[in-house]
Design goal:
The protein is α/β, with parallel strands linked by helices. Helices cover 38% and strands 13% of the residues. The protein is globular and about 75 Å long. The mean pLDDT is 93. One of its GO terms (molecular function) is phosphogluconate dehydratase activity.
């Protein structure tokens, strides 16, 4: 193992000793004293069985595992539309394995691509907490010995895991649906967006380009948060090996899902290969997820999500862990927005089996974790194929395209491109894997905004035609739910293309598709809680330095201390935002996961 990976793992183990022990004690208690299906009262059991016909006798006789299906199906979200018929097929496959299956519950699955830049986006991050609560409700009936988690996109996988890990004594497998086939090239799509931002193309042309990019069922093909989720589930050993990026509607996709159901039936508490999810998700698997994130140039949103997932299992990971790992982990993948290829090109070049095999070989991944497929991660370094009608796994071979995938010995970059920034503005994160190196340091006058719509209005009015650090504050979890600010990307990209030195500083989030413009994000403390980002004024010189790891407003300390913090705007109303006031009021800080439900769980 790489010494820095081991050192960070040891640091996390030591920091988490008390909370992880409390979590494992919870698992032991639940395993011994949980409400079990055979012990439920007769009326309770009758209610649980009343909705099924074919499986009622098997359930009544307690023959085999009863699998709870927690599904995020809806047909407004392309990635999740593929789940429409999964439950009925999974029930058939469960019978093949001597088990039964029921839909335990549904969880909401909102699409950030639809809400991006609008009021509904303020519900996005806390939809993750809602999904965690919904998962807990689904599994609370005591009628399931295992669970299949059907979810893919941005907040859905983290939310499913946060809820599922509170039932960590149960075996669970996450079941993806795969990416849509490739449409218009991502760079071509981005170019049309930038042309539209400056009025060089019509709305109809923009819509045509967007529809050509997002054109069918399946996950969006850029390497944003949704596809980073799938990468993480592979390196954590929570999928069937190689399941992440197989297209929907294929025989291989169907057989991987079938194998997942069969495998669930084998790893229950009553058998001799018990693999509870709370044991699978340990400190080493969390480190593997962070390493995978850095090695592939994944989404910045996981600087929130991975700490939240970890805390649900009693594990405490912070941004310093990411920063130290980033310095030690080579970047071996270039997938849009960090390259020209989409995830289908990534899969064709070797995909996750290549990445995992190579990172195990270089000592960057813990190979000895408990996975749902078997002991150790090595099985995830093989590629699923069909041998006739049978599912098999084979070595992925060398990289099929070295512009997309390389070995750790010859990486695109010697480090993972995520850094902590610290200074008198606070503590923030920056992703530089897609930023040209001559843009890693930006020092320019600030323009301060409280709403991304005001940034776009200033851009359209020509007020930002200069070197500028755009500061967007009151975007943290306590202020407005921490919406993504991805809608700023085309405008800021246009300014940078015009030769200006441009950076973004915010206590909010950027998208998993953030790219070439340097962005200091998740700035903490947030403005609403008195963070120094609330003291910046228009015209102040701000320095964003990803080389030195600093973020400063270049104002004398006594002048800064004498300033009154900016007044926070009132919380938005409408679009259901009032209902999420409880979450906003109790969310912990970004570095702890920006979660309200975990803040109340004692971790």
């Amino acid at each position: 193992m790489h010494p820095e990976v081991l050192a960070v793992t040891d640091r996390i183990v030591e920091r988490s000793r008390r909370t992880r022990r409390a979590y494992l004690d919870l698992l032991d208690r639940e395993r011994e004293t949980q409400i079990r299906r055979p012990a439920l009262g007769c009326a309770n059991l009758a209610h649980a069985y009343a909705g099924t016909d074919e499986d009622r006798d098997a359930m009544r006789a307690d023959r085999g595992m009863n699998i709870g299906i927690v599904t995020a199906y809806n047909d407004m979200l392309s990635a999740h539309a593929v789940y429409y018929r999964y439950p009925e097929l999974m029930k058939v496959w469960a019978r093949e394995a001597g088990a039964t299956a029921q839909v335990a519950g549904g969880v909401p699955a909102m699409c950030d691509g639809v809400t991006q830049g609008y009021a509904g986006m303020e519900l996005s991050l806390f939809s993750r907490d809602t999904i965690a609560l919904s998962t807990a409700v689904a599994l609370s009936h005591g009628t399931f010995e295992g669970a299949a988690l059907l979810g893919i996109c941005d907040k859905i996988v983290p939310g499913l895991l946060m809820g599922a890990l509170r039932f960590g004594h149960l075996p669970m497998i996450l079941i993806p649906g795969g990416p849509m086939p490739t449409g218009i090239a991502n760079k071509a799509k981005a170019a049309v967006r930038e042309r539209y931002a400056v009025g060089d193309c019509t709305r109809e042309e923009l819509l045509e380009a967007e529809i050509a990019a997002y054109h069918g069922k399946g996950t969006c093909t850029f390497y944003g948060t949704a596809n980073t989720n799938q990468m993480m589930m592979e390196v954590m050993g929570l999928h069937m090996p190689g399941a992440a990026f197989v297209n929907p509607g294929t025989k291989l996709r169907q057989e991987l899902t079938r194998a997942a159901v069969h495998r669930l039936a084998e790893i229950g508490q009553r058998g001799d290969d018990y693999r509870p999810i709370g044991a699978c998700v340990d400190e080493r698997s969390i480190v593997n997820a962070a390493v995978g994130l850095l090695a592939t140039g994944g989404s910045t949103n996981h600087l929130l999500h991975l700490p939240a997932i970890a805390r649900a299992a009693g594990i405490v990971i912070d941004w310093e862990d990411f920063d130290r790992l980033s310095a030690a982990v080579p970047l071996i993948a270039r997938v849009y927005p960090n390259g020209s290829a989409d995830v289908n090109g990534f899969e064709a070049a070797g995909g996750m089996p290549f990445v995992i095999r190579e990172l195990i070989g270089s000592g960057h991944l813990h190979p000895d974790i408990m996975t749902v497929a078997g002991d150790g991660l090595a099985a995830y370094g093989e590629k699923p194929v069909l041998d006739g009608d049978a599912l098999a796994w084979t070595d992925p071979g060398p990289s099929g395209d070295e512009t997309i995938l390389r070995t750790p010995a010859a990486p695109f970059s010697p480090d993972g491109g995520m850094r902590i920034l610290q200074g008198n503005v606070g503590r923030a994160c920056i992703k530089v894997s897609a930023v040209e190196r001559d843009r890693w340091v930006v020092e320019a006058p600030a323009r301060v905004f409280h709403d991304q719509a005001d940034v776009l209005a200033a851009f359209q009015a020509g007020e930002l035609e200069q070197d500028v650090v755009v500061v967007v504050r009151f975007q943290g979890p306590r202020a407005n739910g921490m919406p993504e600010l991805h809608k700023l990307t085309p405008a800021l990209g246009v300014l940078q293309n015009r030769g200006f030195r441009v950076a973004l500083v915010t206590d909010g989030r950027m998208s998993g598709a953030s790219g070439k413009v340097p962005a200091a994000i998740h700035c903490s403390p947030e403005a609403l809680l008195g963070g120094a980002i609330g003291l910046i004024r228009d015209g102040d010189m701000v320095r964003v330095d990803a080389v030195a790891g600093t973020l400063d407003v270049l104002v004398d300390a006594d002048v800064l201390a004498a300033r009154e913090p900016a007044a926070s705007p009132p919380p938005g109303s409408g679009m259901g935002r009032e209902l999420f006031g409880l979450f906003r009021g109790h969310a912990n800080e970004a570095e702890k996961g920006a979660s309200a439900v975990l803040a109340g769980a004692g971790f």
